[in-house]
Write a structure and sequence with these properties.
Elements (H helix, E strand, L loop, with lengths): L20 H30 L3 H24 L12 E3 L4 H11 L1 H21 L1 H4 L5 H23 L11 H20 L3 H4 L1 H15 L6 H5 L17 H26 L8 H20 L5 E3 L1 H10 L4 H16 L1 H7 L4 H26 L4 H19 L9 H7 L2 H15 L30
Antiparallel strand pairs: 1-2
Length: 461
C-alpha cells in the first residue's frame, strides 16, 4: 500500500512489506542489474593493475559476487547484532581500488588481504559498537551532506561508463552515448508516465531495452561466457596473508571512509521514510560492513560496503522492502557460485550500465539534499557548512592532483571526497554553535537554527 511519511516520499512498499513473489523477484533482479557491473569491475581493475592471470581474476570476481550477496542478505535479515534490517545492497567499493593496486604491486596480494582481514572489523566494528556515543556528532546535516557527495562523485563515473568506459578505444563514440541516452530516457519515461509494475521496474526494463539495442548493433561480446566454468567453490587463503604496517594503516583510513559512506547510504535509505536510522540500525549496518569484509578477505574478496546506486533505486521507485533486497542478495550469492552466469551478466555494455547509474547517482544526491532540507534549516550557519563541505569534497573529486605535494599517506586519506566532506561538515557542525551541534545546548530562540527539526530516534525513550 502506498504511503507518504512526513518528510519522506510516497512508498509503494515499506521496509517490512512483502510484495508478491513474482514482483519481488523482478524488483530484486533490478537491484542486482544496477550494481553487478561496478561491483565486479573493482575486481577486474585491481587484478589488471596488479597483473593477475585470468584464472585468479575470475576467482576474485566470483568471491566479490558471493560475499556481496551474503552481506546483502545479512543486512536485510540480520544475524544476531550484525545487520540493519534495512534494504541495503552490499558490494565491492571503488574506494579501495587505488590502495589495492599500489599495495598489491609493492607487497603482493597477500598484504592486501592481510590488511583487509585486520582492519575490516576492527575499524568498522569499533565505530558500530560505539555509535550510540558518537551519534550526536552525526546529525542529519552531516549525514545528509555525506549522501550528497556520494551521489555527486558517482556522476563522473557514470559518465565514463555512458561514454563506453574510461579505457575504451572509442570513448565518447555516438553509439555509446546513444545507448546511455536510450536507457536514461526509458527509465525516466516509465517512472514518470506509467503506473504499477512498469513504473516499479523502470530501471530493469530500461537496462533490458538498452541491452537489446546493443545486441542488435553487434556491441555485445560473449567470449567471456565460453571461458568461464559452470560451478566453482570458494578456496580459503588462496593468496595467503601478510601483515604489512603500511598496508594496514592505509586500509584503516579507507575503512573509515567506508563507514562514512555506509552511514550516509543508510541515512539516504531511511530518508524515504522521513527519518534517520536508529542506533541499532547504524550499529548493525556497520558491523556487517566490517565483519563480512574481514571474512571475505579469507576467501580473496575485496572489502564489501553499501552500494549508493541502490539507495537511488529505493528513492526512485518507492520500494523500500528489505525482502526485495534480500532476494537480490540470494541472486548475487548464486552468481558467485557460477562464474559462467556471472560472466553472462557482465556482458552488459558499459554504456547501458552508465545510463542507469547516471540516473541513480542523481537520485542519491537528491535524497541527501532532501535529508538536509527536511531536518536542518538552511540559515547562515548551516549554509556555510554546506558550502564549505561540498566545495572541498567536489574540489578533491575534480582535481585530485592538487594534493600531489602531500605525503603519500596524507594524499590517500585526504584524496577521498567523502572523507573530506564528512570531516569538514563534522568539524564545523561540532564547533560552531547551533541546534545540531553536540557541544552547544543552544535554545531555539537564541539561534538562527530555530527552524531545525530534530529527528526522533524510535529506539530512544
Amino acid at each position: 500500500m502506498s504511503t507518504e511519511p512526513d518528510g519522506g516520499i510516497q512508498l509503494e512498499y515499506g521496509v517490512d512489506d512483502k510484495p508478491p513473489l513474482p514482483k519481488s523477484i523482478l524488483l530484486g533482479l533490478q537491484h542486482v542489474a544496477v550494481m553487478i557491473v561496478p561491483a565486479t569491475a573493482v575486481a577486474y581493475v585491481v587484478a589488471g593493475g596488479v597483473g593477475l592471470d585470468l584464472t585468479d581474476t575470475a576467482y576474485i570476481v566470483q568471491m566479490v559476487l558471493l560475499f556481496s550477496g551474503l552481506a546483502t542478505i545479512v543486512q536485510a535479515y540480520t544475524v544476531g547484532p550484525v545487520g540493519a534490517r534495512l534494504p541495503i545492497v552490499m558490494g565491492s567499493s571503488f574506494t579501495f581500488v587505488g590502495a589495492s593496486i599500489s599495495i598489491g604491486a609493492d607487497f603482493g596480494m597477500a598484504a592486501v588481504f592481510g590488511a583487509i582481514l585486520v582492519t575490516g572489523f576492527v575499524v568498522e566494528g569499533l565505530i558500530g559498537w560505539q555509535f550510540k556515543r558518537i551519534r550526536p556528532f552525526f546529525p542529519p546535516l552531516v549525514t545528509g551532506l555525506v549522501v550528497v557527495i556520494i551521489g555527486l562523485y558517482l556522476v563522473p563515473v557514470a559518465m565514463d561508463y555512458a561514454a563506453g568506459g574510461a579505457n575504451a578505444d572509442d570513448f565518447g563514440a555516438l553509439h555509446h552515448i546513444g545507448l546511455a541516452a536510450l536507457v536514461l530516457a526509458t527509465a525516466v519515461g516509465l517512472n514518470m508516465f506509467t503506473r504499477g509494475v512498469t513504473r516499479l521496474l523502470s530501471i530493469l526494463v530500461a537496462i533490458g531495452v538498452g541491452y537489446a539495442a546493443a545486441l542488435a548493433a553487434g556491441l555485445v561480446d560473449f567470449s567471456a561466457i565460453g571461458d568461464a566454468a559452470w560451478i566453482a567453490l570458494p578456496s580459503p587463503t588462496r593468496f595467503g596473508f601478510e601483515f604489512e604496517p603500511i598496508a594496514i594503516v592505509t586500509f584503516a583510513f579507507l575503512f573509515l571512509v567506508s563507514a562514512m559512506e555506509t552511514v550516509g547510504d543508510m541515512s539516504g535509505v531511511t530518508a524515504a521514510e522521513g527519518r534517520n536510522p536508529t542506533n541499532e540500525e547504524f550499529r548493525g549496518g556497520l558491523f556487517t560492513d566490517g565483519l563480512l569484509s574481514s571474512i571475505g578477505a579469507v576467501f580473496a574478496a575485496f572489502p564489501i560496503t553499501s552500494f549508493s546506486q541502490n539507495v537511488g533505486i529505493v528513492n526512485f521507485t518507492g520500494v523500500m522492502s528489505r525482502h526485495v533486497v534480500g532476494i537480490g542478495g540470494v541472486f548475487l550469492a548464486l552468481l558467485g557460485l557460477s562464474p559462467k552466469v556471472g560472466a553472462a551478466v557482465t556482458t552488459i555494455p558499459s554504456a547501458v550500465f552508465g545510463g542507469a547509474v547516471l540516473l541513480m547517482a542523481g537520485m542519491v544526491a537528491a535524497s541527501g539534499f532532501r535529508l538536509v532540507v527536511t531536518n536542518a534549516a538552511l540559515d547562515r550557519r548551516n549554509t556555510v557548512i554546506v558550502a564549505v563541505s561540498l566545495g572541498l569534497g567536489l574540489g578533491i573529486a575534480t582535481t585530485p592532483d592538487a594534493l600531489a605535494g602531500l605525503p603519500a599517506a596524507a594524499e590517500t586519506f585526504f584524496g577521498q571526497p567523502v572523507i573530506v566532506t564528512a570531516l569538514s561538515a563534522l568539524l564545523l557542525n561540532t564547533f560552531v554553535p547551533g541546534e545540531q551541534s553536540p557541544l552547544f545546548d543552544t535554545h531555539p530562540a537564541d539561534s538562527e537554527s530555530a527552524g531545525d527539526s530534530a529527528i526522533v530516534d524510535p529506539s530512544d525513550d
